[in-house]
Amino acid sequence: MSEVLRRLRPATTAFPRRLAPSTLRGRLSLVALVTATLLMLVLTVAFNAVAQHRLRHQADDELRTRAAAVATTVDTSGTKVRVLETSHDDLLDANVCIYSGRRLLEAPTGAGFLTRVADTLAGHGGRRCATIDVRGPLRLCSQPVPGAKSEATVVTALDLSPSRNSADTLLLGSLVLDAVMLACTYALTRLAVGRALRPVRTMTDQAAQWSAVTSEERFGSMRHPDELARLGASLDAILDRIRTLLRHERQLTGELSHELRTPLSRIIAELDWWRTRPRTADQTHATHQVIADAAESMRTICDTLLEDARNGTLTAPGTAEVLPTLRRLTEALDVPGHLTLTTDGAPPLVAGVPPKLLERIVSPLLANACRYARTSVAVRSYSAPDGVRVDITDDGPGVPPSFAGQLFEPGRRADPGDGHAGAGLGLPLARRLARSVGGSVAHAPGHAPGARFVVSLPAG
């Protein structure tokens, strides 16, 4: 039995949920309709109860008035109660019973059940009223007629059918009015809620459109009510976050493409060279080694950039000997023979970053120096009071002074038509990676001829 109840419970709870409207407009309209229905029900019951009480009170007043008129025809001054005959007393005798104590003196013809109820009222004495149903509702009231030596009781009856019809008419009218008012309430609520939610729907459509095209428009510049203004502020924050995520996604894609281009070019070059003519086993082995090194470099690039994209800071522990790391980098980049690599101070010079990260920071700077240098490229590492420095200098055209402020902005190049391939992402990437470990990359504007970049890293 308990197992059956457990199976039935989800079904019974899910049934009202399926009946509930799925839209906020429908739910608010349903709440308003239910609330109005309960209010109308209470008001209708109260109104009809008051109306019936009022009709019964009017009937009692009429009965007592008739009883008082009949009492004028009853003589209680003697030892016996006598009913005086008057003109037009047939109007007063209709549905009237007169008692002397418990003895019936006068009653309407053919009113057996009415007489029995009147006997009960007269037997209890005092002023009492009762309602019975004899071929229709009847209201009976007893009225004592005191006297000096004897007492009488007059019981009058009144047909309540007209009053009951009036009450039924009032009830039907109130129900019809309730139905009309509920229909109007539901329709007006749906209309009002729809008009109130129209700006929300418009804002939602605009937010979807703006997020798709990364628009600069925002809801904060529009005039809205306070509630919608707060909603607009929340949507603006979401749009800004989406825009930031899209910008980071494009930046990561560009950086991966930029950094993977060099090892991928080496793999393609080695494969083209190996396919041109038959090779010895040693040459094939050397080609495989070059491809494996380039593939390892690509894996390291992906790991480094993806870790930075996930965490925002590179927290992987490690230290790197600067000179050996720079030598491996120059071999991997296949730099020209006019590059000089020097270090100041007693070796080993150790930086407080992993070797692969040091390569990723210096690689774009070294590639740019080799690309633009005329006759020489110099890489010098040395110790500084706050860490380790690596200077990369060349004797190329240098950085135009007008472009120095935009040098580290992603996608910006001083002269896109200078004949050198590049996307303008290497320098921003080098600076961002250096900053992620507490270092920096800066351009020395006073150097001439050519360009000089200084990499500052924490000491290991």
TrEMBL record:
GO MF annotations, alphabetized: kinase activity
Residue ranges of coiled coil: none
Keywords (A to Z) from UniProt: Kinase, Membrane, Phosphoprotein, Transferase, Transmembrane, Transmembrane helix, Two-component regulatory system
Top-level taxon: Bacteria
Primary enzyme class: transferase
Localization in the cell: Cell membrane
Catalyses which reaction(s): ATP + protein L-histidine = ADP + protein N-phospho-L-histidine
Keyword Kinase found: yes
Domain Histidine kinase: 255-460
Transmembrane segments: 28-51
Chief place of localization: membrane
E.C. no: 2.7.13.3
SUPFAM superfamilies for the chain: ATPase domain of HSP90 chaperone/DNA topoisomerase II/histidine kinase, Homodimeric domain of signal transducing histidine kinase
A family per Pfam: HisKA
Residue ranges of every copy of the HAMP domain listed in the record: 194-247
PANTHER family attached to this UniProt entry: SENSOR HISTIDINE KINASE TRCS, SENSOR HISTIDINE KINASE YKOH
Record protein name field: histidine kinase
